[in-house]
């Protein structure tokens, strides 16, 4: 099985999860980088609006998934849904026939059911098999480190390896 992590992160929390998961699983990771840098409060407000409208953003490069069997897609929760860079990835990358896990970081306690439903719908429509969304809560004002993420991502890695 070839695994690949593809992740978008604006302020670093989801990237910390990705690195931590990558360390546990010893697999490749690809960071989606937007062409236009988001900054400050304006970046926050625009990001929320774009996410809620399902907007796509230009990303510098997209990953090659030709050898990937199991995709692990990481993102922050924005306005209860996928951020624009993830919308672009989901529209443009071929995930047909792939197993797909996702993980998100978020501030709130709720279980991201809306995000899970959306990912399941989009992945299925594109011919992939959506298996599970892992959620990590990062309280407001906290910056997640790779070490902080370690215990939880270890469990994610076990579940992904087990194929469940
Ligand atoms: C534009 C924007 C919208 C957000 N919307 C939500 C939200 O709807 N629910 C939530 O729990 N957290 C929300 N957050 C908080 C992020 O999901 C959280 O801080 C996440 O850990 C950030 O990940 P990152 O550091 O990888 O960018 C939002 C953050 C941003 C910037």
Give the assembly state of these chains.
single chain
Order of helices and strands: EHEHEHEHEH
- What's the Cα radius of gyration? 15 Å
CATH architecture: 3-Layer(aba) Sandwich
Topology at a glance:
Blueprint: E1 3-7, H1 13-25, E2 28-31, H2 40-53, E3 70-76, H3 84-92, E4 99-106, H4 113-125, E5 129-137, H5 146-162
Parallel strand pairs: 1-2, 1-3, 3-4, 4-5
Bound molecules: flavin mononucleotide.
The site of flavin mononucleotide (FMN) has 20 residues, from helix 1, helix 2 and strand 4.
Describe the structure.
The chain is of the alpha/beta class and 164 residues long. Strand 4 (99-106), helix 4 (113-125) and strand 5 form a beta-alpha-beta unit. The chain is built from 5 helices and 5 strands. It has one domain (3-162): Flavodoxin domain (Rossmann fold, 3-Layer(aba) Sandwich). It has a 5-stranded parallel β-sheet with strand order 2-1-3-4-5, sandwiched between helices. The mean pLDDT is 97. The longest helix has 17 residues, at 146-162. Helix 1 packs across helix 5. Bound molecules: flavin mononucleotide (FMN). The site of flavin mononucleotide has 20 residues, from helix 1, helix 2 and strand 4.
